[in-house]
Every structure is written in structure tokens, then in C-alpha cells.
């Protein structure tokens, strides 16, 4: 049954509770996400500041470049930094994220092995500031973050880059999850649009359900050969609870929480998304709609009174391997 959604007719998809983009946009994003709150997740720097205020763990910020004249200071900012990530504060779909995993002399090494000069780094930051990667092409900021050192438990499951976990949170309830595993073709980035592998994860156990790459079912990691069915995410309870807490932080009713697992610091929120994609349904081989409707049937009063821990317990009870 792995990946069988790929071959379903539209009528079958509806019968299986698959949410399409139009339905997601009108029935869930427009209804449950107040647009005035979007900057809390669209601007990753604001997200980071907000998360720290709420006591939610995030990767450490090395530096923030706001203006073109600050670019010449990159040499000092990056001095002694072996591993780091540069990303646009208002980027989307993984665009403009530059991952550096090591250095050789004055060269910076990408996960693919490509070496970059300091001038290449400066050019990338300049492009970021000019809005090349940002939503709507607006002028942006360049965030330089500490690179995550992922746990040995993921050896063979990801190609050099850091795997992350996407959790869909609806009205504060975690309802579906997947893990995104970087590949050589995705250049070390955990982005499905660039060729990363998406693995559906059981919301209760943290175990793999099924997996896809480029929308097609896969059983092994394309670069390492590791069997994806063997994947089990550690610290799963903490990851799901961390995602649920993002509801209070953002006040967004329909949310995608991206979590990374650092070898030494544990689960951390990488970023949040007010318009999470729908490929998570293909990765899990199940539809979102039955879970969304179950949460909608809970009275508003009950939803508001429940703590993140109580919401997680509800999800664990109702969404086990379904």
C-alpha cells in the first residue's frame, strides 16, 4: 500500500479524506489563520525571538545581516565557525538556504563537497538582502545560525544534511507528521521540492509508516541504501509536545511546525509555516480530512481549556496508525 495515493482517481482521493489545495486554503488557512499574525511565522527572525520569549528551544543565532554595508563584516562574523547555515529571514520552500558543513583553509564546504570562497558567501548574502529568495521579492535579512549536529541514530537515513520533522498542528492538536531526509540531489537540504525523501511518521510511536521521493514511493534512502522502514525518531513525545506548544506562541489555528533533533541539545523548532504543504498525506498514505474534522467537532470551549499536554494525549489516543 506504500504510496498508493499516487495512483488514486480524484473520487478515490476524496473518499480517503485527502485535502486538496483549494480546500486547505479556504476551509482551514483562511478560516483559522488571521493574516495579521502571519509575520510571526513568515519572518524567521521574528519566529526565533518569539520562541525564546515563550521558552521554546531554537537553533542558536550566530548573527543577523540586515544591510548591504554589513556584508563586508562577514569574515569576522564567520571567524572560527566550521558549521553554519545562512538563510533568508522571509524565504520559503527552502530557497536561499546555504548549508556549510566544514572548512578547508579559506574555503567553505557544502554538503555536496562543493567549495565556496568568502566572496561566494558574500554574494549569496547580498542576493538574500535584495529579496531574491524572499516571499514577494521584498528586501530581506540574512540569518546565520548554528548548524544542527544530528543524532547518530539517523546515520544512513540522511545524506550529510540535517533531517527535520514536519508536524501539522490544528487548533493546537498535532494531527500528522513526517520526516524529511536530505539527499545528494537536495544538496543537504530537507526540502521535498528539491529531492529530499519524505517519510510518514506515526504520531503516537514516532515510527516510519511509508516514504516517498519526488512523489513516488521508495523503500530505501537513494544515496545510502538504508531501509526507511527501520526509522524510529527518538525523543518523540518531546517533539510532538514542542509542536503543540507553538499554537499558544503563534495563535495560528492551522500550522506546520518543523523540528530538528540536535545530538546534544535535543529537539528544537527550526521554523513554522502558516501554509504547510499537503505532501505529508502522500508520505503517510492517509488523508488529513478525518483528523481535521474530528478536532473541529470538539467544542471551542474544550479546545481552549486544554493544555498542550492534554491535546497531545488526545492525538495519541485518536490518531494511532490510522
TrEMBL record:
<dbReference type="InterPro" id="IPR011761">
    <property type="entry name" value="ATP-grasp"/>
</dbReference>
<keyword id="KW-0436">Ligase</keyword>
<dbReference type="GO" id="GO:0009432">
    <property type="term" value="P:SOS response"/>
</dbReference>
<protein>
    <submittedName>
        <fullName>Alpha-L-glutamate ligase-like protein</fullName>
    </submittedName>
</protein>
<dbReference type="GO" id="GO:0005737">
    <property type="term" value="C:cytoplasm"/>
</dbReference>
<keyword id="KW-0547">Nucleotide-binding</keyword>
<feature type="domain" description="ATP-grasp">
    <location>
        <begin position="48"/>
        <end position="309"/>
    </location>
</feature>
<keyword id="KW-0067">ATP-binding</keyword>
<dbReference type="GO" id="GO:0005524">
    <property type="term" value="F:ATP binding"/>
</dbReference>
<dbReference type="InterPro" id="IPR011758">
    <property type="entry name" value="RimK-rel_E_lig"/>
</dbReference>
<dbReference type="GO" id="GO:0018169">
    <property type="term" value="F:ribosomal S6-glutamic acid ligase activity"/>
</dbReference>
<dbReference type="Pfam" id="PF14397">
    <property type="entry name" value="ATPgrasp_ST"/>
</dbReference>
<dbReference type="InterPro" id="IPR039523">
    <property type="entry name" value="RimK-rel_E_lig_ATP-grasp"/>
</dbReference>
<dbReference type="GO" id="GO:0046872">
    <property type="term" value="F:metal ion binding"/>
</dbReference>
